Automatic annotation (TrEMBL):
InterPro entries: CFA/CMAS (IPR050723), CMAS (IPR003333), SAM-dependent_MTases_sf (IPR029063). GO terms for molecular function: methyltransferase activity. It comes from Paenalcaligenes hermetiae. Gene3D superfamilies: Vaccinia Virus protein VP39 (3.40.50.150). Belongs to the CFA/CMAS family. This is Class I SAM-dependent methyltransferase. It holds the Pfam family CMAS.
Amino acid sequence: MSVNAAIQSVIDRLPIPTLLVLPDGSKVGHSDPRLTVHAKTTGALAHLAAGQVGLLGEDYVAGDFDFSGSMRDLMQAAAAILPDTPINQAKAGAFTQLIHRLRSVWRHSIERDAKQIEFHYDLSDDFYALWLDPLRVYSCAYYAEPDFSLAQAQEAKLDLICRKLNLQPGERFLDMGAGWGGLLLWAAEHYGVQATGITLSRNQHAYVNQLIEQKGLSGRVRMELLDYRRLPTNQPFDKMASVGMFEHVGRAQLTDYFARIRGLLRPGGLVMNHGITSGGVDHTQLGAGMGEFIEKYIFPGGELTHISHVLRHLAEGGLEALDIENLRPHYARTLWAWSDALEQNLDEAKRVLEGEQGQRSLRAYRVYLAGCAMGFEHGWISLHQVLAQPSQGGRSDELDYPQDQSYPWRRAYIYGSR
């Protein structure tokens, strides 16, 4: 099939009226389009014909591909040109996945992880404030009611985690990867815990410590710039949460990660692990170039693991899973809310992210947020909350009471009224 024939085939199978502007300025497609795409180079045109949406994303960041129309229409078109699902394409690259697993062993040192977090989260606090909720919760919201706003859904998510952990006044609570402090402060203010948060982001560290002082919580809440592997284990915590963090750990380190959590928890304590998981069983990133795009522009060092493997590593690390919930549809809606907010604030975002590098970052985020929303909608990626506690391993001398009495047995304590 010739390139022109391939291009025409692509345009014909798009679900919305689309006009394609070719590198030479000629046009193919609808005369009254909802979406107009402009392939400015032959390379971008080839990526379009092959359905390599990740490479098209790179072309967009580089300025070799552009569009006019809504981001939702663009993503609908992107899904339609894929030659196969990103999960199946990732399966086909078995050797590539092996290389990724081998790389995972060395790419997650304490120093390297700090640099990778800085790359993402220290971009600009003002930029994130344009599209996150007022608490700046940068993780999947929980739409407990269908008509919830993003802000309401994020508060519902914070409360859902606190309920699942059965937080009690005075308990020592650790938030690993505390972000801009949403959960940390919510737990302290609404549940009366003694709260500690850790982050690798200098911007987040400074921001949260300022909030702690403003709220008069210095005696009960502290935020540290610290890697979880450097936390001392001589004063174990009653409850812990890890939200949107374990994706950065690396699959090769997951057993050690859960073992570290086990060492930081008192016997009978509880941990909530809330994080993105892969939709396919045997891959660490999406195919069709999507994983490479996220690795290059958004989350260097990020890896996804299927929930089945997560549970195995969790058990090998000395934890017992108590409750598992899939919030995938909630994350699709969350990401679309973020994407819509960014699109509504593009002029301000362009001002905040100055210079050519800033504009490249903005273009990357536009593609990333909408592309991930599409990925969650299609089930290519997922989000699981796993509530766990230290395994007893047959021992009865660790507790003054049976471990099964350390948390309510029935879910009513989570979903009932407070």
